[in-house]
Amino acid sequence: MTFREASTRSRASDGPPAALYDRIRASIEATPASTIGTRTRVVLALAAALLAVASVLLIASDVVYQRHAVGLEVGTQSIPHLLFVLFAVVGLTLISTLVALTRGRSGLGPDVTWLALVAGLVTPIYALLVLENPVHAHDSAVLAVDISPWGLRCAIIATIVGTFVLASFAIALSRAIPAAHGLRGAAVGAAAGAWAGLTVFMFCPSSDIQHLLVGHVLPIVAFTLLGSVVLPRVLRA
Amino acid sequence: MIGWNAIGDAPDAWTCEHRQTPFDAQCGVGFWRHYVARSVTLGVRTDTPTPYEGDNYVIEKHVTGAPRRRIVRYVLNRGGKVTGSAPAATCFERPGEFEPSALVRNTSAQAYALPTERHSEATVDPLRDLMRRYAEGDDEVFKQLYELLSPHLYRLCKRLTRQPSEADDVFQETFLRLHRARATYLPGANVLHWAFAIARSAHLDRLRYWRRRPEALGAAADTAEDERLCADQQYGPEAQAQARDLLAIVTTALNKMSEKNRHAYILLREEGLSVDEAAALLGTTSTVVKQRAHRAYEQLRTALRAAK
Question: Which residues, other chains included, contact A178 with Cβ-Cβ below 8 Å and sequence gap of 6+?
Fold first, then answer.
């Protein structure tokens, strides 16, 4: 008899003990389980992300600058350049969100290559878009409001928005990805960071490189790392 | 040759050769040619007790009477799916479980027509339907779902863990997690693979828990623990003892492997997943899965050679 024959014959008797069923049945009956599908939760999470962005642009911007979405209307050097960067940032946010939230045909998540691309490229692409040729020029009316050279206000807003979006995505995907790992968590974190970056891009009129780096770009890095550490356990069943 | 019968008669004769090189199927793709004019289900009879799942079976068709002799090879991998250019699917069953329903004669060959439904597909479709209903909140189907899932899951749990008691715990935890996550089931997805991923996740979480508490570990696992070989009248006591020794050697080697290599081996060789399916389940790329499985094979070969 060969090993294969022995192994295969031993597998023929591999059923679980009968007593296990009763234990499992009892524990399952005592355990509540949600019946809200992942798709519904993802839609709600996206709605929550949009709500977060709208809140900042309408409420926070009004409080700080007495105007809405100051980053889009004040002190821009070139409208075409502004539109290009805006669409690029929106596209980056949507693509990273799509990759991060999709579960693939098997329900186990997209190919790891896509996750690696999102986790690794969202930050450098965003940095390139906002730092290489800043959209804004100086505007005395807006600069009457104190804009921190370290971007603290933007960092706080990005942190609030990013945390809210990350939590929404985590709840949406909770227990939905049995094979979740650090890379998956990093991709979701990067997507949440992209939403934060989009928000502060539309909120903030600063052109200072240091401000943009600390207040706009660094939060994305932080959320990517946070996602890789915190999320895998949440996403796994 | 392992006792395969030739199918068909001379001058066009089919022979089958059993090969144990799991990655050779993709080599020399240009060599594989689609010969038959229409899709036909090929069948192979065997004198061995059980088909060797997961290995590659090379069926050669020697065509005479043509200007020159042509040899066409179909490589059938796990599940009987023909690779290369031929779309025909096959179903490997034990002798007696199928009968050739008709002789299909095309222009120059003769082969048995078999039921086209694959054994695995017959299992997967009811599972998907049951899981979909369970995900929607129908608790009445749990028993049926359990009966279909439990043999596969329990086998996996036993191979993942090193002790039977641990296997029971991981098995129970898997079903509990599956229950809690049931609403997240993606309709149409392979339920077995999804459940395997949950089982593996449960096992790894337990490993991490016990690694943080090394003082709580009990005695080392008994690696020769599988003693539930069926008594088989065809094999004498000596052959059974030899088989047990073989199994013990392989189990020991598996237990010494890293978790990553061991999981790749178990999923590919014992659970019948394709490389892509295993990669999705493990959350990595196909290349990495192949590397891990290759390392596992090498370790097993070394262990078997040392035992000789």
Answer: A108, A236, A237, B181, B194, B197, B198, B200, B201
Tell me how far apart the 2 most distant CA atoms of chain A are, in Å: 88
Sort out which chain A residues have CB atoms less than 8 A from B182's CB and list them. Answer: 33, 35
Residues of A in contact with B243 (CB under 8 A): 1-3, 5-6, 9
Nearest CB partner across the interface for A13, out of B228, B246, B282:
B228
Locus of tokens 């459940």: B195
With a CB cutoff of 8 Å and minimum separation 6, the contacts of A220 are A122, A123, A126, A158, A162, A190, A193, A194, A196, A197
ipTM: 0.83
CA atoms within 13 A on the CB side of B197: 29
Cβ-based contacts of B254 with chain A (< 8 Å): none
Cα radius of gyration (chain A):
23
Q: Which of A178, A200, A169 is nearest to A98 (CA)?
A: A169
Distance separating alpha carbons of residues B120 and B130, to the nearest angstrom = 16
Q: Tell me how many helices (H) and strands (E) chain A has.
A: 12, 0
> What sign does the CA torsion over A102, A103, A104, A110 have?
positive
The answer to whether A52 and A165 have CB atoms below 8 angstroms apart is yes
Backbone torsions φ then ψ of A204, nearest 5 degrees:
-105, 135
So what's the pLDDT on residue A119?
A: 95
Cβ neighbours around B238 below 10 Å, total: 9
pLDDT at A92 over 80: yes
State both tokens at B28: 């020399």
Instruction: Tell me the sheet residues that pair with B81.
Output: B89
Q: How far is A97 from chain B (nearest CA, A)?
A: 18
For the segment A156-171, what is each residue's pLDDT rounded down to a tens digit? Answer: 999 999 999 999 999 9
Q: What is the CA radius of gyration of chain B?
A: 22
Q: What is the distance, to the nearest Å, from the Cα of residue A6 to the centroid of all Cα atoms in its chain?
A: 50
pTM for the whole thing?
0.69
